[in-house]
Amino acid sequence: MNKIPVGVLGATGMVGQNYIALLNDHPWFEVRFVAASPRSAGKKYKEAVDGRWQLARAYTPSVGELVVADANDVSQARAAAKAGSCAFVFSALEMGKDEIRALEDSYAAAGIPVISNASAHRWTDDVPVLISEVNPHHADIIPAQRKKRGWDKGFIAVKPNCSIQSYTTPVYALIRAGYEIKRLIVTTMQAVSGAGYPGPASIDMIDNVVPYIGGEEEKSEQEPLKILGAIEGGAFVNAAFPKISAHCNRVPVIDGHTACVSLEFGDRKPSIEEVKRIWADFKSLPQELNLPMAPKQPIIIREENNRPQPRKDRDADKAMAVSVGRIRPCNIFDLRFVGLSHNTVRGAAGGGILNAELLKSKGYIS
Amino acid sequence: MNKIPVGVLGATGMVGQNYIALLNDHPWFEVRFVAASPRSAGKKYKEAVDGRWQLARAYTPSVGELVVADANDVSQARAAAKAGSCAFVFSALEMGKDEIRALEDSYAAAGIPVISNASAHRWTDDVPVLISEVNPHHADIIPAQRKKRGWDKGFIAVKPNCSIQSYTTPVYALIRAGYEIKRLIVTTMQAVSGAGYPGPASIDMIDNVVPYIGGEEEKSEQEPLKILGAIEGGAFVNAAFPKISAHCNRVPVIDGHTACVSLEFGDRKPSIEEVKRIWADFKSLPQELNLPMAPKQPIIIREENNRPQPRKDRDADKAMAVSVGRIRPCNIFDLRFVGLSHNTVRGAAGGGILNAELLKSKGYIS
Amino acid sequence: MNKIPVGVLGATGMVGQNYIALLNDHPWFEVRFVAASPRSAGKKYKEAVDGRWQLARAYTPSVGELVVADANDVSQARAAAKAGSCAFVFSALEMGKDEIRALEDSYAAAGIPVISNASAHRWTDDVPVLISEVNPHHADIIPAQRKKRGWDKGFIAVKPNCSIQSYTTPVYALIRAGYEIKRLIVTTMQAVSGAGYPGPASIDMIDNVVPYIGGEEEKSEQEPLKILGAIEGGAFVNAAFPKISAHCNRVPVIDGHTACVSLEFGDRKPSIEEVKRIWADFKSLPQELNLPMAPKQPIIIREENNRPQPRKDRDADKAMAVSVGRIRPCNIFDLRFVGLSHNTVRGAAGGGILNAELLKSKGYIS
Amino acid sequence: MNKIPVGVLGATGMVGQNYIALLNDHPWFEVRFVAASPRSAGKKYKEAVDGRWQLARAYTPSVGELVVADANDVSQARAAAKAGSCAFVFSALEMGKDEIRALEDSYAAAGIPVISNASAHRWTDDVPVLISEVNPHHADIIPAQRKKRGWDKGFIAVKPNCSIQSYTTPVYALIRAGYEIKRLIVTTMQAVSGAGYPGPASIDMIDNVVPYIGGEEEKSEQEPLKILGAIEGGAFVNAAFPKISAHCNRVPVIDGHTACVSLEFGDRKPSIEEVKRIWADFKSLPQELNLPMAPKQPIIIREENNRPQPRKDRDADKAMAVSVGRIRPCNIFDLRFVGLSHNTVRGAAGGGILNAELLKSKGYIS
Q1: What is the distance of C-alpha B194 from the center of its chain?
Q2: Which residues of B touch D (CB under 8 A)?
Q3: Are C223 and C246 spatial neighbours (Cβ–Cβ below 8 Å)?
Q4: ipTM of this model?
Q5: Do the chains contact at C258 and D211, CB–CB below 8 Å?
């Protein structure tokens, strides 16, 4: 089978490198186009990342030979699309929000679907923020989006912030099972890779934690409401619940965001056993479609009292599963648990690839 | 002035070492008696801690020359007391709870006041759990305790768990200012020194956090209620509020426990500015008495958005102040903040020494 | 093809767990027998390691169901051997040296070959210390060993200390190419997993290095001389060179030992380019035999000036390759370089498995 | 006594902050002038470092109120000098070497002595590179330097790189005692604070070491030779020995550089006991003059086999002493040991202050 040729925008950055590495040997997609800042443009990819490659996993030799395009120059992608080497792009752009938004629009307008990791378009009312297991039906706003904007083949779909991935899927699983969730207080302990490279200085992360990440609490509180929301008249309407209060911390961990959650149900309250059963049994569309990047079990329950832990659990099921543990009653609300997910895979490039697989399955990319 | 001679039980352990180090140059107290397990008994202190001394700060040469007594043999302490070299003891014993309780009773029965770091007696109904700034009046149960047990000079007073110190004083300051606190959800990120030596394995603390500390959540939820409680009929009665739900985590930090707190007031709710004013102005009996170990300002407000941080703030004011920051409204309850205190100083040996100073000022030791 | 059934002694410890994990899906071997201390004996393996499993990689369900034998009771292994479920054992025993030596002897005497990770038999004069790429011919002492001891099928072969693996293969490659090496000064920075579990306390490994590892410098200086030595009259005779001086340090790294090496050649001195060529081209018997665990390229050269690094390079080629970098002249001797290898894979379980593959290929196990 | 008013150039950077913090309560000097980049110029110091102050130790309120001058504009310092608020400056400038060299020259030409932390002037042949205990007599090149350059009161004196401080004083002590040292191979494990702020990314320093620091090996090999050299005809002539080969590594430690040293004596070789005696007894001019910043004992011997360690030993004697341990024969050369010193105190600001005290005692500043 011929693989679909894909491009990566911001291919030399931290998330871009993760896309490149995760797409090694992907059964459906093949990286044939890479774009980055003007500084890297014109170099071979292997030259552009020389001394800056952050991952244990390497890129393939053929990607190393690709000449880096200038991400600001959409014409290069358009030419690649015409030449059959770029059917859609993953956007891992790192620049100002307004610039990213404009640039992603340009790619879509040029007929190139954009599956983005950036936050720029998360609050655009016709752009879906997808967690493939939670709101795959949100992808179906794409025809309305295309129509409204006069785009033919292009569209924009994004993924949410990495900080919310450790609890949004478990929360959704409970809601889908019929249990309303009213309120949720969450404290995150987030890995340094979430800040890109170089990210936090080592002098701030040795023998220390930093109880603040700019913008992260707002995203953690608001993005789940869009994801859990509805489509009305070609635009998203936020869910009213759960109300979320977030405390976001940076801790000296390479990969893996951990979340300590206390939540309050509505009138119907499941038992702890029922919660575990719901999570253990949870499957969604990516599992039904058997998508290549989909974890077999989106939520893995750890019964040991000291798990999940980032170093031991982040890589579960291709680093795409959310691990939960310490499932117990809350003294104040109803339920407490600890959730953990891999922020640069599940929470970034891996989640983006899964979204692409979903969008292909639904026929939006080809 | 002649200094009061003091003993340290468990002098070779982590907390014991902190007592020894903090009592260097204390204006009122001088370490003249050290006791530890039979393994160390009979050796000079400097031999007993050779290769096991954990602190950057050294012990004084004269303490190094003290011969270590067997902590299980109260007669050695009694002899030291008679010889004028042990007016009271700090207990940093590390053994089973029942053994500690019995042993601390024996010292008190022998006429030697015990100021303990151990958890053994925290729920004994006539033993005060003291944070000198919060419940100094609880010391006044001592006459009833002595009477009930038939002790003459001896008594037992303890300090609470280190995990609660980052939020209990700020919480108390608000209550004292007239604001009822109904509920409080707290997530702690606790330093490894809190587990004694060797404590957590490095393989569990490099690139990792552990979302569990045995017994810590229960202590974090219950101990504040005794501290905020009342004395009735010679025994303590717990406060009914605040209801607390705790998530306790171990993080790769040497010293300094950080707490992320969301709390709900009763009907009267202070503004953020009022909260800050109350904390900035908070002083209590140790400050009024100008006790040597008392921080000038028990609660220090950090206005930077990324503080307090363990490495930068734990040593504030002799490592005895609680630093608070990120004071802001809560989306769900009323107030969010981050509290930080030094667990082996404020939360252990330093807090114990301050308690001793308070008890001396009140005339219970001499 | 039917897989050869193998046993793991000390299966619940750190190295034992690595054996279990690495033998998942091994094409030749299958774990069918596990033995550990009496504390674990009688439990299912999954129960025995519950809450103690240290690795990100999991064990297979079928291994989880194995009932743990008592490693001290050789009759259990003998029964398993008879029943066709234990053709040989990997020894990852953790006990006193004398006990290990005696116990390994008993297994061999019972007809069960022992491929050991322990240091107990490293200086036994008829026991080969194997690095499969360096001294595969040392395996051929086995007939003499069997004869001398009156063993029929059993034998003992061991692997060297993990600390020497980062430089012994590169050193050997140069010697094999005809360049005598006279002297070598090496400073290692070793990972905490090398000390087993729990290993170094986190309080000693956060914001710290420890410039001492008991016994490690002696092993680092002497073991290479046996490995590079000759067989004479059924016993090993050490090589006279290179003379080695080692400084061994523990650093806060999970896996991966790094070595900074300065070495002096004999009269013939290769150029830096020649050194690189020799290392890049180096292959040995495991590569010729295409053994399953053999790295394709035993020595990987990193040209970036800040590599190799443990986190980025330890996993190269199934964590079985040695990565070298910073290849440059020495101001005092002739050559400087940095070597790195994965201590629990290449330096322990992975190296042991490769040795077993070699011994099978040579017909010593079947 | 009136304190001498001093200035700090680059006062907002990492080393500058250390100067500010260490000069709190200095008995001779008082910070009255601070200069930094144009970005900070015009602000109060407390505003300029708001959110950027890296140290646990705070600056004094009076320094906080100083208005930051533009370090590029020497006229501001000249005015301060005239006004009696800047008798000399500590230079902690962070810019290109050529710019620093030119700027430091301008200050000196303006009559303001410059005691510099920067490397710019270390190889200027009439500029002394001072370790106060090692080559205090090198200060006496200042009259020749002034004469050659036509400077009246101004001069330039610098301190060496932080990486050499853990072994240069011990090496010198042996040389002074009459033992020639021919060759020395050293491997350093250096703290992240040595790279300034932000310095190494946390993603490179968690679960990792980096075996490279740009330019550090060259400095480590060459600077000691100037320090141990002689003055001939108003210029420095390097010592011929010891020949040094250095391997420099970055490790996840906040403060404190550790060095593993193997060294070869000339024909006369001291015993290990003699080495210890020489180091234990070593005192030099700063100790004789009883300079405020001088450690009582410049070299502290740790007899425990696992010391010195950065976290436990870096702060010895105001963080100004070098701690040495593991003193033992070398298999290849004659002597092995581990040296440790605090890189931002002894190796930077503290060493600079001690140099200033020395220069004042010698009458070069007043």
Answers
A1: 11
A2: 50-51, 54-56, 206-207, 254, 304-306, 311-315
A3: no
A4: 0.95
A5: yes
pTM of the model: 0.96
**Nearest residue in C to A306, CA atom:** C51
Q: What is the pLDDT of residue C134?
A: 98
* pLDDT(B1) > 70: no
The pLDDT of C52-81, averaged and rounded, is 94
Closest CB from C51, C206, C311 relative to A207: C206
Q: Tens digit of pLDDT for each residue in D147-206? A: 999 999 999 999 999 999 999 999 999 999 999 999 999 999 999 999 999 999 999 999
Contacts of B208 in chain A (CB under 8 A): 253, 309-312
- Per-residue pLDDT tens digits for A114-123: 999 999 999 9
Contact B203, C193 (CB under 8 A): yes
What average pLDDT does this structure show over B144-160?
Answer: 97
Token duo for residue C94: 């953790």
What is the per-residue burial (b if ≥16 Cβ within 10 Å, else e) of D301-335? bbeeebbbbbbbbbbbbbbbbbbbbbbeebbbbbb
First to last CA, chain C: 13
The predicted-structure confidence for A249-273, as pLDDT tens digits, reads as follows: 999 999 999 999 999 999 999 999 9
- Find chain A residues with C-beta within 8 A of D198's C-beta: 198, 201, 203-204
Say whether pLDDT at A58 is over 90: no
SS3 sequence, A202-271?
A: HHHCCCCCECCCCCHHHHHHHHHHHHCCEEECCEEECCCCCEEEEEEEECCCCCCEEEEEEEEECCCCCC
Mutate to test the interface with B, among C206, C212, C343, C344 (most CBs of B within 10 A): C206
**Measured distance CA(D255)–CA(D194) in Å, rounded:** 8
Question: Which residues of C sit within 8 Å Cβ distance of D?
Answer: 183-185, 187, 189, 204, 206-212, 221, 243-247, 249, 251-254, 258, 260, 262, 305-312, 325-326, 330-333, 336, 338
How far, in Å, CA of D129 to CA of D131, rounded? 7
Query: What are the chain C neighbours of B200 within 8 Å (beta carbons)?
Result: 201-202
Chain B: partners with 3+ C-beta pairs within 8 Å = A, C, D
Contact D262 C247 (CB under 8 A): yes
d(CA A236, CA A174): 22
How open is the CA angle B83-B87-B89, to the nearest 5 degrees?
A: 120
Q: Give the nearest chain A residue to C254 (CA atoms).
A: A311
Confidence class for position C154, pLDDT limits 50, 70, 90: very high
Domains and CATH numbers, chain B: 4-161+348-361 (3.40.50.720), 163-342 (3.30.360.10)
User: Which chain A residue lies closest to B254 (C-alpha atoms)?
Assistant: A207
pLDDT at A1 over 80: no
